[in-house]
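User: Round two. Same drill as before: sequence, then structure, for each protein.

Assistant: Same drill it is. First protein:
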Amino acid sequence: MKQIKTLLIAAIVFLGANQTINAQAKTAHVDVSEIMSKMPAMLDAQKQLEKLSGTYDADYKKMVEEYQSKLKKYEAESATVTEAVNEDRSKEVQDMQKRIVDFRDNAQKELQQKESDIVKPLMEKVRASIQKIGKAKGYQYVLDGSALLLADGPNITADVKKDLGF
Protein backbone atom coordinates (compact mmCIF):
# COMPACT_ATOMS: atom_id res chain seq x y z
CA MET A 1 0.00 0.00 0.00
CA LYS A 2 2.89 2.32 0.86
CA GLN A 3 4.48 1.64 -2.56
CA ILE A 4 1.25 2.51 -4.34
CA LYS A 5 1.08 5.80 -2.45
CA THR A 6 4.69 6.60 -3.36
CA LEU A 7 4.08 5.64 -6.97
CA LEU A 8 0.92 7.76 -7.06
CA ILE A 9 2.75 10.78 -5.58
CA ALA A 10 5.61 10.34 -8.09
CA ALA A 11 3.12 10.16 -10.95
CA ILE A 12 1.38 13.35 -9.76
CA VAL A 13 4.72 15.18 -9.44
CA PHE A 14 5.79 13.98 -12.89
CA LEU A 15 2.50 15.04 -14.49
CA GLY A 16 2.63 18.41 -12.68
CA ALA A 17 6.18 19.04 -13.89
CA ASN A 18 5.16 18.05 -17.41
CA GLN A 19 2.23 20.52 -17.30
CA THR A 20 4.59 23.26 -16.07
CA ILE A 21 6.96 22.64 -18.97
CA ASN A 22 4.08 22.68 -21.46
CA ALA A 23 2.65 25.84 -19.89
CA GLN A 24 5.83 27.84 -20.53
CA ALA A 25 5.45 30.47 -23.19
CA LYS A 26 6.94 29.87 -26.60
CA THR A 27 9.58 32.49 -27.32
CA ALA A 28 11.49 33.41 -30.46
CA HIS A 29 13.85 36.20 -31.37
CA VAL A 30 14.37 38.47 -34.33
CA ASP A 31 17.13 40.94 -35.23
CA VAL A 32 15.23 44.13 -36.00
CA SER A 33 18.38 46.17 -36.70
CA GLU A 34 19.49 43.65 -39.34
CA ILE A 35 16.08 43.76 -40.98
CA MET A 36 15.97 47.57 -40.95
CA SER A 37 19.52 47.91 -42.29
CA LYS A 38 18.85 45.57 -45.23
CA MET A 39 15.30 46.63 -46.01
CA PRO A 40 15.21 48.10 -49.56
CA ALA A 41 12.87 50.92 -48.50
CA MET A 42 15.26 51.82 -45.67
CA LEU A 43 18.22 51.83 -48.03
CA ASP A 44 16.32 54.23 -50.31
CA ALA A 45 15.43 56.39 -47.31
CA GLN A 46 19.07 56.55 -46.26
CA LYS A 47 20.03 57.71 -49.75
CA GLN A 48 17.38 60.45 -49.58
CA LEU A 49 18.65 61.56 -46.18
CA GLU A 50 22.27 61.55 -47.36
CA LYS A 51 21.32 63.66 -50.38
CA LEU A 52 19.43 66.15 -48.21
CA SER A 53 22.28 66.22 -45.71
CA GLY A 54 24.74 66.88 -48.55
CA THR A 55 22.63 69.80 -49.74
CA TYR A 56 22.55 71.27 -46.23
CA ASP A 57 26.30 70.74 -45.84
CA ALA A 58 27.04 72.51 -49.12
CA ASP A 59 24.83 75.46 -48.17
CA TYR A 60 26.41 75.62 -44.72
CA LYS A 61 29.95 75.58 -46.14
CA LYS A 62 29.03 78.31 -48.60
CA MET A 63 27.68 80.47 -45.78
CA VAL A 64 30.80 79.89 -43.66
CA GLU A 65 33.12 80.70 -46.57
CA GLU A 66 31.21 83.91 -47.28
CA TYR A 67 31.42 84.81 -43.58
CA GLN A 68 35.17 84.15 -43.45
CA SER A 69 35.90 86.15 -46.60
CA LYS A 70 33.89 89.14 -45.33
CA LEU A 71 35.60 88.89 -41.95
CA LYS A 72 39.04 88.95 -43.59
CA LYS A 73 38.08 91.84 -45.83
CA TYR A 74 36.61 93.85 -42.96
CA GLU A 75 39.64 93.19 -40.74
CA ALA A 76 42.00 94.29 -43.51
CA GLU A 77 40.00 97.46 -44.14
CA SER A 78 39.19 98.29 -40.51
CA ALA A 79 42.07 100.75 -40.10
CA THR A 80 41.15 102.70 -43.26
CA VAL A 81 37.41 103.20 -42.67
CA THR A 82 35.44 105.24 -40.18
CA GLU A 83 34.26 104.04 -36.79
CA ALA A 84 30.63 104.06 -37.98
CA VAL A 85 31.49 101.78 -40.93
CA ASN A 86 33.34 99.42 -38.58
CA GLU A 87 30.32 99.28 -36.26
CA ASP A 88 27.99 98.52 -39.19
CA ARG A 89 30.35 95.81 -40.39
CA SER A 90 30.56 94.34 -36.89
CA LYS A 91 26.76 94.15 -36.72
CA GLU A 92 26.69 92.56 -40.18
CA VAL A 93 29.25 89.94 -39.12
CA GLN A 94 27.26 89.17 -35.96
CA ASP A 95 24.08 88.81 -38.03
CA MET A 96 25.88 86.44 -40.38
CA GLN A 97 27.09 84.37 -37.40
CA LYS A 98 23.54 84.15 -36.09
CA ARG A 99 22.17 83.13 -39.52
CA ILE A 100 24.84 80.43 -39.81
CA VAL A 101 24.05 79.01 -36.36
CA ASP A 102 20.29 79.18 -37.01
CA PHE A 103 20.73 77.50 -40.39
CA ARG A 104 22.78 74.68 -38.84
CA ASP A 105 20.27 74.14 -36.02
CA ASN A 106 17.28 74.18 -38.37
CA ALA A 107 19.01 71.82 -40.80
CA GLN A 108 19.69 69.34 -37.99
CA LYS A 109 16.07 69.53 -36.80
CA GLU A 110 14.74 69.08 -40.32
CA LEU A 111 17.01 66.08 -40.93
CA GLN A 112 15.91 64.47 -37.67
CA GLN A 113 12.25 65.10 -38.48
CA LYS A 114 12.65 63.75 -42.02
CA GLU A 115 14.39 60.64 -40.68
CA SER A 116 11.61 60.12 -38.13
CA ASP A 117 8.95 60.59 -40.82
CA ILE A 118 10.63 58.01 -43.04
CA VAL A 119 11.64 55.43 -40.42
CA LYS A 120 8.41 55.35 -38.40
CA PRO A 121 6.21 53.77 -41.12
CA LEU A 122 8.97 51.31 -42.02
CA MET A 123 9.32 50.30 -38.38
CA GLU A 124 5.55 49.83 -38.15
CA LYS A 125 5.67 47.60 -41.22
CA VAL A 126 8.45 45.50 -39.65
CA ARG A 127 6.57 45.30 -36.33
CA ALA A 128 3.40 44.15 -38.11
CA SER A 129 5.35 41.49 -39.99
CA ILE A 130 6.98 40.26 -36.77
CA GLN A 131 3.57 40.00 -35.12
CA LYS A 132 2.15 38.17 -38.13
CA ILE A 133 5.01 35.64 -38.26
CA GLY A 134 5.07 35.23 -34.47
CA LYS A 135 1.34 34.50 -34.29
CA ALA A 136 1.46 32.19 -37.31
CA LYS A 137 4.21 30.13 -35.67
CA GLY A 138 2.50 30.12 -32.28
CA TYR A 139 4.92 32.31 -30.31
CA GLN A 140 3.65 34.27 -27.34
CA TYR A 141 6.80 36.42 -27.19
CA VAL A 142 9.19 37.61 -29.87
CA LEU A 143 12.23 39.43 -28.54
CA ASP A 144 14.62 41.72 -30.38
CA GLY A 145 17.74 39.59 -30.68
CA SER A 146 20.11 42.53 -31.08
CA ALA A 147 19.94 43.15 -27.32
CA LEU A 148 19.89 39.53 -26.10
CA LEU A 149 22.87 38.02 -24.38
CA LEU A 150 21.56 34.49 -24.90
CA ALA A 151 19.23 33.67 -27.76
CA ASP A 152 18.38 30.01 -27.34
CA GLY A 153 14.99 30.04 -29.09
CA PRO A 154 14.27 30.08 -32.80
CA ASN A 155 15.37 33.07 -34.88
CA ILE A 156 12.56 34.30 -37.15
CA THR A 157 14.58 37.09 -38.83
CA ALA A 158 14.69 35.23 -42.15
CA ASP A 159 10.92 34.62 -42.01
CA VAL A 160 10.24 38.32 -41.41
CA LYS A 161 12.55 39.32 -44.29
CA LYS A 162 10.72 36.89 -46.55
CA ASP A 163 7.36 38.27 -45.45
CA LEU A 164 8.58 41.81 -46.18
CA GLY A 165 9.71 40.74 -49.64
CA PHE A 166 13.49 40.78 -49.44
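Second protein:
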Amino acid sequence: MVGWIILGVLVALIVGICLIPIGVDVSFIDDKLRLAAMAAGVKLQLIPKPPEKEKKPRKEKKPKEKKPKPPKEEKPAKEEKKGLPLGLTVDDLFEIIKKVLQRLGRFGRKFRVDNFLLHFTASEADPYYTAMTYAYVNEVLCILAPMCRRTFKVKKSDVSTDLDFMANRFRLDIALAMTIRIGQIFGLVFSIAFAALGVVLKARRRQKREEKEQKKLPPPDADAADQTEHTETQTIQDEERMAANG
Protein backbone atom coordinates (compact mmCIF):
# COMPACT_ATOMS: atom_id res chain seq x y z
CA MET A 1 0.00 0.00 0.00
CA VAL A 2 2.81 2.38 0.88
CA GLY A 3 4.53 1.59 -2.39
CA TRP A 4 1.44 2.54 -4.40
CA ILE A 5 1.15 5.81 -2.48
CA ILE A 6 4.81 6.67 -3.23
CA LEU A 7 4.32 5.75 -6.89
CA GLY A 8 1.21 7.94 -7.09
CA VAL A 9 3.04 10.88 -5.53
CA LEU A 10 5.93 10.51 -8.00
CA VAL A 11 3.55 10.33 -10.97
CA ALA A 12 1.66 13.40 -9.74
CA LEU A 13 4.96 15.25 -9.24
CA ILE A 14 6.17 14.42 -12.76
CA VAL A 15 2.84 15.45 -14.30
CA GLY A 16 2.89 18.68 -12.31
CA ILE A 17 6.40 19.51 -13.54
CA CYS A 18 5.43 18.78 -17.15
CA LEU A 19 2.49 21.18 -16.88
CA ILE A 20 4.63 24.10 -15.68
CA PRO A 21 4.72 26.82 -18.37
CA ILE A 22 8.06 28.44 -19.12
CA GLY A 23 8.80 31.20 -21.57
CA VAL A 24 10.47 34.45 -22.45
CA ASP A 25 9.37 38.09 -22.45
CA VAL A 26 11.47 40.34 -24.68
CA SER A 27 10.81 43.90 -25.78
CA PHE A 28 12.54 46.76 -27.58
CA ILE A 29 10.59 49.92 -26.81
CA ASP A 30 11.90 53.50 -26.83
CA ASP A 31 15.31 52.15 -27.92
CA LYS A 32 15.60 50.11 -24.71
CA LEU A 33 16.03 46.34 -24.66
CA ARG A 34 14.36 44.29 -21.96
CA LEU A 35 14.58 40.54 -21.49
CA ALA A 36 12.96 38.37 -18.83
CA ALA A 37 12.54 34.63 -18.31
CA MET A 38 9.22 33.27 -17.06
CA ALA A 39 8.37 30.08 -15.16
CA ALA A 40 5.00 29.26 -13.60
CA GLY A 41 3.96 32.90 -13.78
CA VAL A 42 7.13 34.18 -12.07
CA LYS A 43 9.21 36.62 -14.12
CA LEU A 44 12.97 36.87 -13.74
CA GLN A 45 14.49 40.00 -15.25
CA LEU A 46 17.74 39.38 -17.13
CA ILE A 47 18.31 42.58 -19.14
CA PRO A 48 18.80 45.13 -17.72
CA LYS A 49 20.02 43.43 -14.60
CA PRO A 50 18.21 44.44 -11.42
CA PRO A 51 20.30 46.47 -8.97
CA GLU A 52 22.29 44.23 -6.67
CA LYS A 53 21.95 44.50 -2.94
CA GLU A 54 24.94 45.78 -1.03
CA LYS A 55 26.94 42.89 0.30
CA LYS A 56 29.13 42.95 3.35
CA PRO A 57 32.84 42.77 2.55
CA ARG A 58 34.19 39.29 3.06
CA LYS A 59 37.19 38.61 5.19
CA GLU A 60 40.27 37.79 3.21
CA LYS A 61 41.44 34.23 3.65
CA LYS A 62 45.06 33.34 3.84
CA PRO A 63 46.23 31.54 0.75
CA LYS A 64 46.99 27.89 1.32
CA GLU A 65 50.35 26.51 0.33
CA LYS A 66 49.97 24.33 -2.73
CA LYS A 67 51.92 21.10 -2.80
CA PRO A 68 53.68 20.32 -6.07
CA LYS A 69 51.80 17.71 -8.05
CA PRO A 70 53.70 14.71 -9.44
CA PRO A 71 54.20 14.83 -13.20
CA LYS A 72 51.52 12.99 -15.13
CA GLU A 73 52.47 10.12 -17.36
CA GLU A 74 51.91 10.87 -21.00
CA LYS A 75 49.39 8.53 -22.56
CA PRO A 76 50.00 7.28 -26.09
CA ALA A 77 48.05 9.20 -28.66
CA LYS A 78 45.02 7.36 -29.94
CA GLU A 79 44.69 6.76 -33.63
CA GLU A 80 42.09 8.97 -35.19
CA LYS A 81 39.29 7.06 -36.85
CA LYS A 82 38.37 8.26 -40.27
CA GLY A 83 34.81 8.54 -41.50
CA LEU A 84 31.56 9.46 -39.83
CA PRO A 85 30.67 8.05 -36.38
CA LEU A 86 28.31 5.08 -35.86
CA GLY A 87 28.84 3.95 -39.43
CA LEU A 88 26.68 6.76 -40.81
CA THR A 89 26.89 8.05 -44.34
CA VAL A 90 26.22 11.52 -45.70
CA ASP A 91 22.77 10.37 -46.84
CA ASP A 92 22.02 9.21 -43.28
CA LEU A 93 22.97 12.63 -41.91
CA PHE A 94 20.69 14.35 -44.41
CA GLU A 95 17.90 11.96 -43.39
CA ILE A 96 18.39 12.89 -39.71
CA ILE A 97 18.35 16.62 -40.53
CA LYS A 98 15.17 16.15 -42.57
CA LYS A 99 13.39 14.40 -39.69
CA VAL A 100 14.53 17.05 -37.18
CA LEU A 101 13.17 19.85 -39.38
CA GLN A 102 9.87 18.00 -39.78
CA ARG A 103 9.50 17.72 -35.99
CA LEU A 104 10.40 21.38 -35.51
CA GLY A 105 7.79 22.37 -38.08
CA ARG A 106 5.10 20.62 -36.05
CA PHE A 107 6.48 22.16 -32.86
CA GLY A 108 5.38 25.71 -33.66
CA ARG A 109 1.77 25.13 -32.57
CA LYS A 110 3.02 24.14 -29.11
CA PHE A 111 4.12 27.71 -28.45
CA ARG A 112 1.56 30.15 -27.10
CA VAL A 113 2.12 33.80 -27.90
CA ASP A 114 0.61 35.60 -24.91
CA ASN A 115 1.39 39.05 -26.26
CA PHE A 116 2.83 40.39 -29.50
CA LEU A 117 3.28 44.10 -30.14
CA LEU A 118 4.67 45.76 -33.26
CA HIS A 119 4.47 49.51 -33.84
CA PHE A 120 6.36 50.83 -36.85
CA THR A 121 6.54 54.45 -37.95
CA ALA A 122 8.14 55.08 -41.33
CA SER A 123 10.18 58.26 -41.56
CA GLU A 124 12.99 59.23 -43.90
CA ALA A 125 14.68 62.46 -44.94
CA ASP A 126 13.03 62.13 -48.36
CA PRO A 127 9.19 61.92 -48.29
CA TYR A 128 9.26 59.56 -51.31
CA TYR A 129 11.37 57.01 -49.47
CA THR A 130 9.14 57.42 -46.43
CA ALA A 131 6.07 56.44 -48.46
CA MET A 132 7.92 53.56 -50.18
CA THR A 133 9.16 52.17 -46.84
CA TYR A 134 5.66 52.39 -45.40
CA ALA A 135 4.19 50.49 -48.36
CA TYR A 136 6.93 47.86 -48.31
CA VAL A 137 6.53 47.16 -44.56
CA ASN A 138 2.75 46.83 -44.93
CA GLU A 139 3.18 44.39 -47.80
CA VAL A 140 5.59 42.23 -45.79
CA LEU A 141 3.24 42.22 -42.77
CA CYS A 142 0.31 41.15 -44.95
CA ILE A 143 2.36 38.13 -46.09
CA LEU A 144 3.75 37.16 -42.68
CA ALA A 145 0.58 37.65 -40.58
CA PRO A 146 -1.35 34.60 -41.95
CA MET A 147 1.78 32.43 -41.73
CA CYS A 148 2.32 33.35 -38.08
CA ARG A 149 -1.32 32.66 -37.21
CA ARG A 150 -1.05 29.18 -38.75
CA THR A 151 2.25 28.42 -37.04
CA PHE A 152 1.65 29.83 -33.53
CA LYS A 153 -1.25 30.18 -31.14
CA VAL A 154 -1.60 33.94 -30.73
CA LYS A 155 -3.59 35.09 -27.70
CA LYS A 156 -3.13 38.85 -28.02
CA SER A 157 -1.52 40.97 -30.74
CA ASP A 158 -1.20 44.67 -31.51
CA VAL A 159 0.28 45.54 -34.91
CA SER A 160 0.16 49.02 -36.41
CA THR A 161 2.10 51.10 -38.94
CA ASP A 162 2.21 54.86 -39.41
CA LEU A 163 3.89 57.67 -41.37
CA ASP A 164 5.85 60.64 -40.06
CA PHE A 165 7.18 63.13 -42.60
CA MET A 166 8.67 65.39 -39.93
CA ALA A 167 11.20 63.03 -38.32
CA ASN A 168 14.43 61.89 -39.97
CA ARG A 169 14.50 58.24 -38.80
CA PHE A 170 12.03 55.42 -38.46
CA ARG A 171 10.67 54.24 -35.13
CA LEU A 172 10.17 50.61 -34.13
CA ASP A 173 8.63 49.27 -30.94
CA ILE A 174 8.36 45.50 -30.62
CA ALA A 175 7.50 43.14 -27.76
CA LEU A 176 6.97 39.38 -27.55
CA ALA A 177 5.86 37.20 -24.65
CA MET A 178 5.87 33.48 -25.46
CA THR A 179 5.32 30.41 -23.26
CA ILE A 180 5.41 26.63 -23.59
CA ARG A 181 4.99 23.75 -21.15
CA ILE A 182 7.97 21.68 -20.01
CA GLY A 183 6.23 18.45 -21.02
CA GLN A 184 5.89 19.68 -24.59
CA ILE A 185 9.63 20.38 -24.75
CA PHE A 186 10.34 16.85 -23.50
CA GLY A 187 7.96 15.51 -26.15
CA LEU A 188 9.89 17.30 -28.89
CA VAL A 189 13.26 16.11 -27.57
CA PHE A 190 12.10 12.49 -27.36
CA SER A 191 10.53 12.67 -30.81
CA ILE A 192 13.77 13.94 -32.37
CA ALA A 193 15.84 11.39 -30.39
CA PHE A 194 13.72 8.43 -31.54
CA ALA A 195 13.74 9.64 -35.15
CA ALA A 196 17.55 9.94 -35.12
CA LEU A 197 17.87 6.56 -33.36
CA GLY A 198 15.81 4.92 -36.11
CA VAL A 199 18.20 6.23 -38.78
CA VAL A 200 21.24 5.07 -36.76
CA LEU A 201 19.83 1.55 -36.25
CA LYS A 202 19.00 1.33 -39.95
CA ALA A 203 22.58 2.30 -40.83
CA ARG A 204 23.98 -0.29 -38.38
CA ARG A 205 21.83 -3.08 -39.90
CA ARG A 206 22.98 -2.08 -43.37
CA GLN A 207 26.62 -2.11 -42.26
CA LYS A 208 26.31 -5.61 -40.70
CA ARG A 209 24.60 -6.92 -43.83
CA GLU A 210 27.44 -5.58 -46.01
CA GLU A 211 30.04 -7.15 -43.70
CA LYS A 212 28.31 -10.57 -43.96
CA GLU A 213 28.20 -10.30 -47.76
CA GLN A 214 31.91 -9.46 -47.86
CA LYS A 215 32.75 -12.52 -45.72
CA LYS A 216 30.89 -14.81 -48.13
CA LEU A 217 32.92 -13.58 -51.10
CA PRO A 218 36.26 -15.36 -51.84
CA PRO A 219 39.46 -13.40 -51.27
CA PRO A 220 40.34 -11.17 -54.21
CA ASP A 221 43.66 -13.02 -54.88
CA ALA A 222 42.20 -16.55 -54.66
CA ASP A 223 41.13 -16.72 -58.29
CA ALA A 224 44.47 -15.39 -59.51
CA ALA A 225 46.36 -17.91 -57.36
CA ASP A 226 44.26 -20.82 -58.66
CA GLN A 227 44.77 -19.69 -62.24
CA THR A 228 48.57 -19.39 -61.74
CA GLU A 229 48.74 -22.86 -60.17
CA HIS A 230 46.71 -24.33 -63.02
CA THR A 231 49.01 -22.70 -65.60
CA GLU A 232 52.14 -24.04 -63.89
CA THR A 233 50.67 -27.56 -63.70
CA GLN A 234 49.73 -27.43 -67.37
CA THR A 235 53.26 -26.26 -68.31
CA ILE A 236 54.89 -29.10 -66.35
CA GLN A 237 52.59 -31.66 -68.01
CA ASP A 238 53.43 -30.29 -71.45
CA GLU A 239 57.16 -30.47 -70.75
CA GLU A 240 56.88 -34.08 -69.50
CA ARG A 241 54.86 -35.05 -72.58
CA MET A 242 57.46 -33.49 -74.89
CA ALA A 243 60.30 -35.28 -73.07
CA ALA A 244 58.50 -38.61 -73.37
CA ASN A 245 57.99 -38.16 -77.10
CA GLY A 246 61.68 -37.52 -77.56
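The radius of gyration is 36 Å.

User: Perfect.
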